[in-house]
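Retry 2 of 3 after timeout on previous attempt. Resubmitting structure tokens to design endpoint.
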């Protein structure tokens, strides 16, 4: 990777958003920040206790396990079986990650060469395309059908022939779109037919509402022949600062990732892995109150928008709303207007690719009353 490769990547939109936020605060402005999706809830006590025990354990002061600590591996395997009915060979099909963002980048970097193609949803979490460019590969953006499914028929056959990885993200960030297990099976069949590694980013596996249970791609029979899936503690367990996640699925892909990671690092920190083990072991107790809080926040802000005449449909998963920028305004123009006139920080849709232009993301990372105030400020700014 050369300096010219890095310099060819445009500035990270979240850096620019942070600069605008910092400048507003320097002017003495009070802000309601619903931009970055950083959880504001506490780390669960059972996880804190696990980290405290680990920090005091002298035997853990050495380097961590390369692939995964046995306790983390066992907890993940038990979680997958309890939550999705999926059974894995944890020694061969699972790898600890220092957050799923880093893991997704490493999967792309370890599975592509210059000239290869990575199939990326047209509205996407930025690392999908940025890691592809850093690998010297080409991101090819897959358009959405009206219901949020990927339009695989729109792809050019020559691009598909060069594809090494295809990424899917359901429930989607920022789109909030969810799909059924049958739709995931369609992606598995496509990947198998074209000898492509299917990478499912399942960052929001537990943040679902109204009876909807998020499926795993590994519930599709035979999916582990072609697919891997990343899971993270960041959102479901309020552990974004702990930096622990995992990838599971196709054994050959896990081995290739392990070969890459072992050449550039020394595994995920033991304290983080043991924190993750506690989280997944106790997921059935930890998750419901976190989901209940996000549901209350979602309901409050959606009701506030609708009451002010801005129609919003409540998403059935994730911690976001994905809304239209008022007609006639650009993404940054809208962001700046909201900061200046309403004291509200949102993320411009262009942060998620060109197809995201004309949209903006609201993160449910404030208490309900502040989200209602944010909605009122957004509507008032639009009316001006």
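Retry 2 succeeded. Sequence:
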């Amino acid at each position: 990777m050369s300096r010219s490769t890095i310099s060819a990547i445009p500035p990270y939109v979240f850096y620019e958003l942070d600069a605008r936020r910092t400048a507003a605060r320097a002017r003495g402005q009070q802000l309601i920040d619903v931009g970055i999706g950083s959880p504001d809830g506490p780390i669960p006590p059972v996880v804190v206790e696990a980290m405290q025990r680990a920090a005091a354990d002298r035997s853990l002061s050495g380097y961590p396990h390369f692939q995964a600590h046995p306790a983390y591996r066992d907890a993940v395997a038990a979680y997958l079986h309890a939550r999705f009915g999926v059974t894995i060979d944890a020694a061969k099909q699972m790898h600890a990650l220092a957050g799923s963002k880093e893991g997704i980048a490493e999967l792309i970097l370890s599975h592509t060469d210059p000239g290869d193609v990575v199939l990326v949803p047209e509205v996407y979490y930025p690392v999908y395309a940025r890691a592809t460019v850093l690998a010297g590969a080409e991101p090819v953006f897959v358009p959405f059908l009206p219901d949020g499914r990927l339009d695989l028929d729109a792809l050019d056959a020559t691009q598909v022939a060069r594809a090494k990885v295809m990424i899917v993200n359901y429930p989607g960030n920022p789109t909030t779109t969810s799909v059924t297990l049958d739709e995931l099976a369609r992606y598995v069949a496509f990947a198998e037919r074209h000898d492509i590694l299917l990478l499912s980013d399942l960052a929001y596996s537990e943040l679902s509402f109204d009876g909807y249970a998020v499926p795993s791609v590994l519930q599709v029979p035979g999916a582990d022949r072609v697919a891997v899936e990343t899971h993270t503690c960041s959102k479901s367990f309020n552990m974004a600062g702990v930096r622990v996640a995992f990838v599971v699925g196709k054994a050959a892909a896990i081995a290739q990732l392990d070969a890459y990671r072992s050449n550039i690092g020394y595994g995920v920190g033991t304290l983080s892995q043991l924190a993750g083990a506690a989280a997944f072991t106790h997921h059935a107790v930890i998750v419901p109150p976190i989901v209940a809080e996000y549901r209350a926040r979602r309901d409050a802000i959606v009701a506030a928008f609708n009451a002010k005449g801005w129609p919003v449909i409540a998403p059935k998963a994730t911690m976001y709303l994905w809304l239209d920028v008022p007609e006639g305004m650009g993404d940054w123009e809208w962001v700046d207007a909201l900061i200046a006139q309403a004291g509200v920080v949102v993320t411009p849709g262009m942060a998620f690719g060109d197809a995201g232009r004309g949209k903006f993301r609201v993160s449910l990372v404030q208490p309900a009353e502040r989200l209602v105030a944010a909605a009122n400020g957004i509507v008032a700014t639009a009316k001006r």
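Attempt log closed. The radius of gyration is 21 Å.
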